[in-house]
Amino acid sequence: MASDRPTIASVRADPAASFALKAVLLAWSGRDVVDAANDAELLSAILGAEADRFPRGSS
Question: Reduced to 3 states, what is the DSSP secondary structure of residue 33?
């Protein structure tokens, strides 16, 4: 069964993916994937909390 999750290769090949995301994937390519995933989760939590401080447009 195929996963709906993107792969590192598919994101790096995607012209719509941000350069920042591609740079992180390249920089973290030699890391232990569990350590990288843990760091990514922490980064997501930090940036999510920062984003929550700003009002969003009404939908």
Answer: helix
CB count within 10 Å of CB 12 equals 14
pLDDT band at 40; cut points 50, 70, 90:
very high
CA quadruple 10, 16, 18, 19: dihedral sign: positive
Separation of alpha carbons 4 and 45, rounded Å: 22
pLDDT tens-digit readout, 16-25 = 999 999 999 9
Report d(CA 47, CA 53) in Å as an integer: 10
